[in-house]
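CORE FACILITY INTAKE
Project code: CF-77B
Contact: R.S. (postdoc)
Sample description: multi-component assembly, two entities in total
Requested service: structural model of the whole complex
Turnaround: standard
Below are the sequence entries exactly as provided by the requester. Do not edit them.
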Amino acid sequence: MQASVSPLSTPLPPQFTTRSNSNLRLCGLRKEAFGFRSVSQFQNRGSHWTSVVSRKPRRRRQLVFSASATVADNGSVPLTTFDYDLVIIGAGVGGHGAALHAVEKGLKTAIIEGDIMGGTCVNRGCVPSKALLAVSGRMRELQDEHHMKALGLQIAAAAYDRQAVADHANNLASKIRGNLTNSLKALGVDILTGFGTIVGPQKVKYGKVGLSDNVVTAKDIIIATGSVPFVPKGIEVDGKTVITSDHALKLEFIPDWIAIVGSGYIGLEFSDVYTALGSEVTFIEALDQLMPGFDPEIGKLAQRVLINPRKIDYHTGVFASKITPAKDGKPVIIELIDAKTKEPKDTVEVDAALIATGRAPFTKGLGLENINVETQRGFVPVDERMRVIDADGNLVPHLYCIGDANGKLMLAHAASAQGISVVEQLTGKDHVLNHLSIPAACFTHPEISMVGLTEPQAREKAEREGFEISIAKTSFKANTKALAENEGEGLAKLIYRPDNGEILGVHIFGMHAADLIHEASNAIALGTRVQDIKFAVHAHPTLSEVLDELYKLAKVNPHATKPLNEPVAV
Amino acid sequence: MASLSFSSSVSSSTPFLRPSAFFLKPRSISRLPLVRAKIREIFMPALSSTMTEGKIVSWVKSEGDVLSKGEAVVVVESDKADMDVETFYDGILAAIVVNDGETAPVGAPIGLLAETEDEVAEAKAKAAAQSSSAPSAAAPKVEESAPVATKAEAPAPAVAAAPATPGKVVATPYAKKLAKQHKVDINKLVGTGPFGRITPEDVEKAAGITPAPKANVVAPAAPAASAATSAASPAKAATSFPEIPGSNVVPFTTMQAAVSKNMVESLSVPTFRVGYPISTDALDALYEKVKPKGVTMTALLAKAAAMALVQHPVVNATCKDGKSFTYNSSINIAVAVAINGGLITPVLQDADKLDLYLLSQKWKELVEKARAKQLQPQEYNSGTFTLSNLGMFGVDRFDAILPPGQGAIMAVGASKPTVVADKDGFFSVKNKMLVNVTADHRVIYGADLAAFLQTFSKIIENPESLTM
């Protein structure tokens, strides 16, 4: 019924609206590293069917309204008055982004947070990890005698104070949390404290555990409850010697030897931190190669730079079937089984184990059963417009889910972008987010970044859809600025269609790769083609000339070149 | 017989740089596979985790001798034993780099082995270069880093803890990397890290390279303070004594050096002493009876001490970290023996469990081995309690120094006829000996030691239980 009233045209080609299998694999990878979590625990107070039944007449009216809303411009006075135009459950980066945009669009907005403002990203994810990585990057540089000598610097032995490093991460998180909270308050977003539960259509209750609940109504609701670290069964997390990223970011102890289960973003970043601070690392990866999901060429180079020369070894193609924390005078013991045959393969004894096997959506206690929504492996099913799909495959009116909780792309900035996309729709402008334009980065030293498809994904798509692809590559060794920094190790890679100049993917491994990727992600988002962007000017000497080089290397069929805009005289 | 093996690498002008391996056994034979290299270095092996340098006792072979694999080439003196180093390769002993009587750090090349006549000259030139740069075998060459793996096949008893998975070699990632880089066989190393794991330091030691500085963790201490201490420390190092004309300086043997090191270390332990007079008439009578069966006084005393220790486990305990008691599960009585200008403490393991006759037999074997310098490490460093007896010299009492790693040592004086008055005032003459126990007061207190001595004296005075 809802579907029938939204015959809006899709502004992007269909392949962008439904994600292919290979894309999902990419998601899976990204799941591991980013994403955020806003509510640590929901209270499931049981069913509220009675109230739903009693509201039945109103529900019908709302459906009528929603139908009219898509036809008429939004802003028409609703037939019922609500406490808020928009209530967002979860104040992580996704909820925050949505709230800011909602206020800008004139919506009366509230945000419910049951745990701590800022969610995973700010408190237990991207933000504190960047503080640790900032330290590890400097440590690494100062310890690299060869590098220092090449620059003509002489440094006495570099040393660090663990507590001060941990404090830096913690202070950064507090500061960002404060900024985020203040920005919401300053804009007039109501912050409602407590765990939010959907009790019926357009109706949310919230409150602290054991205290009386408050119920608010909202024209639209966005679920943005994020995720928590995923711990496979058989692994006993004690928070001391067997830990997740939540514990590791507190940097309470630096083991001599730590096993990192999972070699995705989280694992890789922590290996960078731990090895710089003097630990030795053993990776345990279920797939046959480390860093699955990265473009293979980038992965290979990254392994040569980030793994092989460091105090790291690895076991691939194995699952950690059982991990026992250190106790009774024994080290942490990890039992490995073959990922395919499930045969016991080896045991590993280490001082600590970090579980970085990805993140699980945090959607329990949301009251989804009250509105006939079933999660899939915990994820809230949504369509390409983040509209929640119920158990019968119908769209649930006025209910959206963004961020890690829907599992489309578990990255903080993806959640925020999804939130903004939802608000655009709520305020009358159809919008479908192009997930392939969302960049991802891994903040190792040097950094890894990517946007769009990997080479195998692009080849698969090209074969399926019958077009050619071409690759352009350049090394950081050819970049003046990189050489000035004595950081020539790096590769940038452009995957594009030679027939029309479309950019399919860009992958960068090298100094400041995370900052460099945006030129490419913007190009993809805006549909800029290689033959257009190659005329854009880059300052010299800068690292961004690496991308300039890529565009210039690309060979696009001249017939595809559309006429450039006439230069504007200034 | 346990053997010690080590591999050594080869430095050669050919691009091949392969580890060769030399088996090390106290006077015995062994061999290993062939490696494609022209000139191999023979390295100073590490015979124990504490050994940092070794002394060449003698070269069994001379320069130019043709060697076949398994032949003993050189005898190396470690802390307590002399070991034969045997070649795994056929070849010609081209050059001796470290001569008889000289010492070399573990991992340093001590000789060169050429595969054929043709390489002998080249090897000699190489040796000349080496000995000129390093007279009595100094630092190992870094550019041709000298990998040597060591392992005491018999488990080194002192090693803290074994891996939780028995029989598994646990090495840290960096240790494995280094081992690969320096061609050290990780399976032949004994880990000194936590849980018996092989650390990068173990590999570096085996490869004879100076450990790279670790990532530094600092407490937020005032840097000035540390600078001050480091500046102060070298100052006190050199104390000079007035030279007396005509004096003759004889360097320590390796064994003497080990004794010296242990004695200085012992100063860090707070010890105290308790003496006790014990009547030995009954013991002497028993000794006369069992002597024809090969029982020695040492065995009797060791057995008596072991039996007393069973009842006083704290006296058999050690304090390893200054924070805890380490109760030893077995009672291993080390007995100090003066030998060849040195001192060694062969250990009677499980002395409480073996009967007197077995113990005596075991003791005889140990003494023979000690004289032949063939004691295996676990035969001299696994003691939990030490017995020292100077009674045979007529010494009536003395004071022993507690060896590091043990809780107590018993010094036994001579048994002498002594006039004693009993509680009724009657005089009589009885044989009495004075025993004096030195103990670590961190774990063993006065009353513990007194009670132990009381038990010990009861056993000596009623020695029938010793024969049971």
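Facility notes:
- Residues 162-186 of chain A form the longest helix (25 residues).
- Chain A touches chain B through 29 residues (CB under 8 Å).
Invoice: internal transfer
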